[in-house]
Design brief:
By secondary structure, this protein is α/β, with parallel strands linked by helices. Helices cover 49% and strands 16% of the residues.
């Protein structure tokens, strides 16, 4: 099943638009792995997918993370690898194949390297096995504006960088775009450009100051939440409260 359909089905099943960012860190690898499993089990009915960032891969190693991916799948949750792939083609291809082998359903990549000998290998690897590629359009941190709102060249019609990235996502038939929830005006603009169908994934709700409801009203499809849930004294209660607040 194509990734966009997979996460949509999961969202409909759980009645949730929350993607859990499982971005924990610890030097105690065994305890870290077990904690991740406990959190997944506690909150699985309140989220529609899981996103794993590189710090968890660095802490646990890809084989152990692959076990977590399998566990999430047993809970019927698709898993996204937040790799932000942005290297040359053969390096992107190698990393993409490793993430596919580890069981991930989609990978986040940065379109900054362009298509030829850059993102082409990522999309080629993904399409062979029905995996998703989500492109980064605008990050959620306060310094993101310095780059993503920068005006491009005259050849691109002097569009902001994020608009050019959005156009790339359309041209390359990406499975979604990442746009920070801290920038609802950017979400609104991206939604206008891509139309109603493409998924917009918005991190930055809660700890970074993004407002969940404003992001959804602006056009976000899914909200990526991490610390607000996993750093809570009760991840289950926090996930449930967020889920209920968005219904």
């Amino acid at each position: 099943m194509p990734f966009a359909n997979l996460i949509r089905a999961s969202s409909e099943r759980t009645q949730s638009r929350i993607v859990l960012a499982l971005d924990l860190e610890s030097e105690d690898h065994h305890a870290l792995c077990e904690k991740c499993k406990v959190i997944l089990k506690d909150i699985d009915e309140y989220v529609c997918a899981v996103k794993i960032n590189r710090q968890l891969v660095l802490s646990l190693g890809l084989p152990t993370v692959s076990e977590l991916v399998t566990y999430a799948h047993e809970l019927s949750l698709p898993v996204i690898m937040d790799a932000k792939l942005n290297d040359v083609g053969h390096t992107n291809s190698s990393m993409m194949k490793s993430y596919i082998h580890a069981g991930f359903d989609a990978v986040i990549a940065s379109p900054i390297t362009g298509w030829k000998s850059g993102m082409d290998s990522v999309f080629e690897s993904a399409r062979k096995v029905d995996k998703g590629v989500i492109l980064l359009a605008y990050m959620s941190n306060p310094g993101a504006e310095q780059f993503y709102s920068m005006i491009g060249s005259a050849a691109d019609g002097q569009k902001p960088i994020f608009e050019r990235f959005t156009q790339m996502a359309i041209e390359w038939r990406a499975d979604g775009l990442v746009v920070g929830a801290t920038h609802p005006e950017i979400i609104r603009r991206v939604r206008t450009l891509v139309g109603p169908s493409m998924g917009i994934y918005s991190p930055g709700v809660g700890t970074q100051g993004g407002d969940a409801k404003k992001a959804l009203q602006a056009g976000s499809t899914y909200l990526i939440l991490g610390r607000t849930i996993y750093a809570s004294p009760s991840p289950r209660d926090s996930a449930r409260e967020l889920w209920e607040s968005l219904k």
